[in-house]
């Protein structure tokens, strides 16, 4: 069996800075035809997107997919709520974890796995300001050490 090709369409780079990622899950997306066409062109944003569990289902809110430029009057609403496809076991686990104080579901990236649009969903806890500063400090020290190693070699 060959491994499916994955092509990342859009990623939420700010999420890794704003949140401490505890675990990730791959979910399918329920999309309309014009949304898929627009996604294939890379016209999407995950900037203010988040997921929530409602009535035993997981929903994605705030993801912006631009209307398809060659679409008709039946084009999609750019900010509509989209259903995420997960296994029941995964949904039950997420329901239990999201009930914990301070945990939320954040989308990290949208990509195509073969012909299907997939979403990388993260269970995350928001970072405090001092945690963000600490992350920046660690990144800068690592960068400085790498530079010093390259100069010596």
Overview of this structure, please?
- Strands 1-8-9-2-7-5-4 form a seven-stranded antiparallel β-sheet. It has a two-stranded antiparallel sheet with strand order 3-6.
- It starts with 5 loop residues before the first strand and ends with a helix.
- By secondary structure, the chain is α+β, with helices and mostly antiparallel strands.
- The protein is globular and about 60 Å long.
- It has helices spanning 13-18, 33-40, 88-98, 129-152, and strands spanning 6-11, 19-29, 44-45, 50-54, 57-61, 64-65, 82-85, 103-113, 116-126.
- β8 and β9 form a beta hairpin.
- The protein has a single domain, classed as Beta Barrel (Small Protein B, Chain: A).
- It has four helices and nine strands, in the order βαβαβββββαββα.
Describe the structure in brief.
With 153 residues, the chain is α+β, with helices and mostly antiparallel strands. It has four helices and nine strands, in the order E-H-E-H-E-E-E-E-E-H-E-E-H.
């Amino acid at each position: 069996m060959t491994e499916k090709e994955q092509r990342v369409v859009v990623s939420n780079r700010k999420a890794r800075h704003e949140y401490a990622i505890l675990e990730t899950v791959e979910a399918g997306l329920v999309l309309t035809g014009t949304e898929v066409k627009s996604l294939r062109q890379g016209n999407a944003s995950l900037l203010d997107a988040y997921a929530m569990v409602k009535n035993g289902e997981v929903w994605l809110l705030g993801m912006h997919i631009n209307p398809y430029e060659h679409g008709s009057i039946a084009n999609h609403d750019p900010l509509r709520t989209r259903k995420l496809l997960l296994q029941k076991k995964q949904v039950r686990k997420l329901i239990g974890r999201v009930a914990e104080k301070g945990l939320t579901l954040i989308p990290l990236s949208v990509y195509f796995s073969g012909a299907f649009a997939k979403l990388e969903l993260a269970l995350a806890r928001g970072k405090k300001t001092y945690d963000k500063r600490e992350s920046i400090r660690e990144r800068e020290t690592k960068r400085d050490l790498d530079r010093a190693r390259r100069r010596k070699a």
